[in-house]
Structure formats: structure tokens, C-alpha cells
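Need C-alpha cells for this chain, all 258 residues.
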Amino acid sequence: MKKIREEKLRLLVLECPYDILHDGFAREIFSKMILLKLEGYQMEYPYGIIPVDTTDFVGDHMILCQEWNGKLIPLMAQRTISLQRCQLHHLEFPLFHYTLTEQSQSHRRWIESRLAQAIKQSANITYDSSVTIHPHVRETPDLKNIAKELILAQHVFYHTQRNTTQTLALGVTQFKMDREFQKIGFEYAMLNGEPLNLYLSLSYPLWRSTNLCGTNESSSTQTGWAEFMIRSARGRRDERLPNRSLKKFRLAQKQRSL
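Here are the C-alpha cells for all 258 residues:
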């Protein structure tokens, strides 16, 4: 892979490939994202594990790319799918796939209660998963940190723009994804006062209870941080990625007000 430059990083959302694969650009990005998944998962899992399923065709994909000679090369991605989209395509909500054992029935009941509540309230509930990072990025600490911050910012921006009510996720402790999710406000699911390991939940509006990057922030700071990250990734000349942390963002805002 060519040397990655921060100002060449781009963010995009590939919405429901099922609807847009007739478009050449969508097909190109989708196929590159599938390759990214294969390369990323094969670094950690044995041969035979398939990181692609039906939800890849009907969910939305948040993708961090490098621009190179006019082409976009995916470096990191995550997938989100709503309950409504699962119902439209007659798919079981993906989290249920992890509740097939007798020991996980308490988890299944928790998921069922969340979905039932969402249906009753006509709320938009999603499952976010399949976080994948290119092996080259993973082996480059500074770039990996940038990529993680950008993909988290994109997560915030995506769901606030689409009026998501609640997002459910699995925090894989092996890769410390639970800690990454907790940075933007995810909390462990609770059942009868006890935490359900791995299962995390994030309710919106995000600023209602979020602890972002270790500090309690107002809505303007949180959404401002996310928008700042997005603008930086789009290559704004006045705001480059070196000022990428929430702390530096707050300092920059303070200095501009002086």
C-alpha cells in the first residue's frame, strides 16, 4: 500500500448496496470494502471464517478511505442496519445470531425487550457491527488512532443526522472495541441490575448521557467535534487532521473566540 497522507483521507457512506449496485462507483466501493473485510478478518481469525453476510447488501456502510490518483481505497469500515430494514427484507435482527445457546437466553430477552420498545414507540433502533481495519493501518499506531477517531466521529455524525433513537452493538474485548464504543457514550446493557458482557447500548440524543473521550460534554461540543472530524477528512484547508482530538478541538474553539 502507498504511504497514507492524512489530508488524503476521505469518509463516505455506502447506503444499502442492494439498491444501488447498478451504479459503477457503488459496485467498485462495495467490492473494495468486501476485500478490506477479508484482509482485516484473516489477520485475526482462522481460514473458513466468512466476514460477509446478507446484511452487507442491505445495511449502510461507513467507510474511511484514502484518495489515490482519483480512486478511493477503503482503510476502515463499519456497518449499521436498522430494525426497519431487517423487517423490509425479512431478516432476523442480527444480534439474535449470538443468542443460540442456553447460556445466552438472558441476552436474547434483553434484545427482545429493546426491539419491542422500539416498535411500540416507532423508534429507529439499529445494530452496528463489523468494524474492520486494513492490516497496514493496524500496524501503524498513529494512523490507527486517527482512523479510529474518524470512524467514531462518522458514527456520531451518521446517527445524529438520521435521527437514530438507539444503537446496539457487541464490544469485542479482544480488540478493546468495548472501550472504543464507550468513548462515545455506549454503556453495557443491564438486565435485572447486572451487566450483560459484550452487549452495549447507546441512546440518542447523544448528549443526554454521553461521556465522550473521558469528559462530560454539551451537545454543541459533541456534535461540533464530530463535524470537525468530518470536515477535516474532507480536506478543508483551515482544519487539518493533526488537530484531531476532542481536547485540541475545544482549545481551538476557545482560541478563536478570543
